[in-house]
Hints:
Order of helices and strands: HEEEEEEHEHEHHHHHHEHEHH
Mean pLDDT: 92
Distance between the termini: 34 Å
Oligomer: single chain
Number of helices: 12
Structural class: alpha/beta
Strand order of the largest sheet: 1-2-6-3-7-8-9-10
Largest sheet: 8 strands, mixed
Amino acid sequence: MDWQTTPEDSVPSTLVPGTELGSIGKPPVTGAWRAGDHPGDRSFESLGEQQVRGGRLPAVRVAYETWGTLSPERDNAVLVLHALTGDTHVTGSAGPGHRTAGWWSDVVGPGLAVDTDRWFVIAPDMLGGCQGTTGPSSVAPDGIEWGSRFPFVTVRDQVAVQVRLADLLGIERFAAVIGGSMGGMHALELAVTHPERVGRLAVLSTTAQTTADQIAANSLQRAAIQMDPGFAGGDYHDAAPGEGPHRGLALARRMALMTYRASDELNGRFARSWQSDVSPLGDDGRFSVESYLDFHGNKFTRRFDASSYVTLTHAMDSHDVGDGRGGVAAALGRVTATTLVVGISSDRLFPVEDQHRIAAGIPTTLDGDRAAVIRSEFGHDGFLIEHEAVGAHLRRLLD
């Protein structure tokens, strides 16, 4: 397996060769895409001023990618919304501008479940992210990165930016909106806020309302980043390579992986195996699972920004479709789109009960008041890994 080109978000947990562990060099201060970097397959739109929960952004830029052709009637647009650490690169190879290959390359493309010969697919980078859309690593009007000055944003703020992008592209109604995990929060919020703009809806491995348990996990990951001296309160973007908050960000990623993967998968793949011939029982050796977490934590620092991680997990905590709308059930009842709700049997971040709650509240689901459940050992990341099963469900919705 090519660790440099395959996104770790969409592969099963695997033993990491010992030779790989020390071969990836000094970490950059940020893994963000920054102005002047190769654009890759991204397009960009400037939206101007945007009001958000924490204040005002005087100028917002949105990065996005597209596949397929928009019909003359503009009625075949499908919006695909990425998860917390995803980006615009849904499908395609790694290369200039894209450090990893597409995270759903077996789901989106010609002849696949989301068939780009039929649909015009749009995938924006979310507000506050670090892969081209305005976020903490972006340069503010004064010529310095936003850093700690970047305002608090909510899922609703991020969806408002996605709607403005659609307006700019001349898309009044999406044929479908699809999202998993944090992207599922966006998809659900969009269908609740603007039901007239969503024809079909697919939400995978997500929730209608972030729970205390999920907020707790996010808070610990933020603390790991914020306690790193290299974080410097969020104002670290001019630091030298190796002097940024890479230790805290890597630790946050390791902690997150424990919620993304299922215990049965980790136990089955790693058991109590050692990484090398050196014992982890007092002889400075390591268990294989430790090396797996370390490798992916360290690699993550090459493609993500610590402040974006803090910003986006705060946004996840804000998610509650029922806030100000009479509660979750009342809000879900506003959805008019034909809706597919999918859960993963072993998901311990967003348990299947969260998806059943969504299905029970939306009156226009494909499967009644219960979510479709994919049996998988891969935990939350199953929606990124179980391509065949996920694709079969999406075909039910789109065909």
